[in-house]
């Protein structure tokens, strides 16, 4: 899998080696699964192709390779059996994706998929209550769920400051995965999607602190109001 990046040999893309020291406990398999499913979706042609061309694309595009299909099955099984994946394994996958020319797109698509998956662990009744009840009742429920999910899946701390929410992640595994903090789009997109699904909030999110810029942790700020 590491020998191909978006249809070109890995050696064709020359980037500086990651410089951050990132570590953590084993991760829920929903994260690597979302990363690979995003790459697969991006690399899959929209139009139908003949058999010969499909075979050629599988050899050139990471998301269509047999290795990725096998890993998707493996991570899907891990999600069902609640098995976690080593941090270093997911870190290596994120850094591989970060070498793609469309890394920002891939990480943001993965973030949305990741959030939809972990928000799906919340019962339908709780999600409905958090979104549909008047703010006085529904917002505290949504905030409690968001805090729990942020801690469980993003290894982050979510706090409210007035009309804003701050998500703080000490060691986001994609912090150095791409140029210009592209890897941080994974967490930003997941944060935005979770807010939309649980609180019907769809506003701008500001990346106020970033490990790749020399800060001690990554932090995102979102407005805490309904659409």
How would you portray this structure in words?
This protein is of the alpha+beta class and 227 residues long. It contains eight helices and eight strands; from the N terminus they run E-E-E-H-H-H-E-H-H-H-H-E-E-H-E-E. The strands form three sheets. It has a four-stranded antiparallel beta sheet, with helices on one face. A two-stranded antiparallel ribbon has the order 1-2. Strand 7 and strand 8 form a beta hairpin. The termini are far apart.
Show the helix and strand layout.
Blueprint: E1 4-5, E2 8-9, E3 27-28, H1 30-43, H2 51-60, H3 66-81, E4 84-85, H4 87-97, H5 103-119, H6 124-132, H7 135-153, E5 156-161, E6 164-169, H8 185-199, E7 205-209, E8 218-223
Antiparallel strand pairs: 1-2, 3-4, 5-6, 6-8, 7-8
Helix pairs in contact: 1-3, 1-4, 1-5, 5-8, 6-7, 7-8
Number of helices: 8
- The percentage helix is 40-55%
Name the average pLDDT. 85
Structural class: alpha+beta
Broad shape: globular
The number of strands is 8
What is the succession of H and E elements? EEEHHHEHHHHEEHEE
| CA(first)-CA(last) distance | 41 Å
Relative strand content: 5-15%
Largest sheet: 4 strands, antiparallel
Q: What is the C-alpha radius of gyration, as a whole number of Å? A: 18 Å
């Amino acid at each position: 899998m590491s020998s191909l990046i978006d249809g070109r040999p890995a050696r064709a893309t020359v980037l500086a080696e990651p410089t951050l020291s990132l570590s953590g406990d084993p991760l829920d398999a929903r994260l690597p699964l979302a990363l690979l499913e995003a790459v697969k979706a991006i690399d899959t042609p929209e139009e139908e192709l003949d058999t010969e061309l499909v075979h050629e694309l599988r050899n050139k595009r990471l998301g269509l390779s047999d290795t990725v299909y096998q890993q998707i099955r493996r991570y899907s099984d891990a999600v069902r059996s609640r098995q976690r994946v080593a941090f270093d394994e997911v870190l290596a996958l994120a850094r591989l994706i970060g070498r793609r020319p469309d890394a920002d797109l891939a990480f943001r698509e993965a973030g949305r998929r990741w959030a939809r998956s972990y928000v799906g662990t919340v019962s339908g009744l709780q999600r409905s209550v958090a979104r549909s009840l008047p703010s006085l009742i529904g917002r505290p429920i949504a905030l409690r769920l968001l805090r729990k999910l942020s801690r469980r899946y993003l290894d982050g701390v979510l706090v409210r400051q007035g009309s804003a929410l701050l998500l703080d992640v000490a060691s986001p595994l994609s912090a150095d995965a791409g140029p210009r903090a592209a890897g941080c789009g994974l967490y930003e997109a997941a944060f935005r999607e979770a807010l939309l699904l649980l609180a019907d909030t769809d506003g701008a999110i500001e990346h106020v602190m970033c490990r790749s810029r020399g800060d001690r942790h990554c932090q995102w700020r979102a407005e805490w109001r309904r659409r």
